[in-house]
Design goal:
By secondary structure, the protein is an alpha+beta fold. It has a single domain, classed as Vaccinia Virus protein VP39 (Rossmann fold). Helices cover 39% and strands 22% of the residues. The strands form two sheets. It has a four-stranded mixed sheet. The chain has a three-stranded antiparallel sheet with strand order 4-6-5. α3 packs parallel to α6. The longest helix has 14 residues.
Amino acid sequence: MDTSADRLEQAWRRTWAEGLGNVSYEQGDAQSHPFAPSRFDVCISRFGTMFFGDPAAAFRNIGRALRSGGRLVQLVWQEPGLNEWFTAPLRAIAGSDPLVPTAEDLAPFSLADAATSEHLLTSADFVEVDLAAVHEPVYYGADADAARDAALRLRHVSDLLARSAARTQALERLRVLLKAHETRDGVQFQSRAWIITSRRP
């Protein structure tokens, strides 16, 4: 399930290319979608639940769709300061200017605080909430040029660049940063995330 028709189309094409026949897709918002009650054994979200406008309502809605004993598994970012993939390009573009991320920039980190996430889930009647730390690099591209293209597709990067008074210099600082992060496995940045698991009683 996704709110984006384009992403669902891409997913469907990949599924078709793999020859999988047991996958279906639906456009909608899991926060409010009228799921059949007690229908699913597990719900998995990879970097999606952070964007719920009302996470308390969303987790209650998802909980109703899970059978007794059903699991909710989420992958979410930890705090921005622990995620170099997010902060480093912004600092490069900002240069000597103060870096003040907008509320929209910080939306991917809305579930970064462990206590907040646990409270939201227990308030929605989930039990056995567990947070496991994940420390894996984020891959930006095969080389600095590919990584530049990928970085500029990220909204928080492109928005800050659009506000820059010296775009050429900002782009050069970004290029230098990406070049410095080239490895034999491509351009990579450090990241920290949580795998949050919980269960319906």
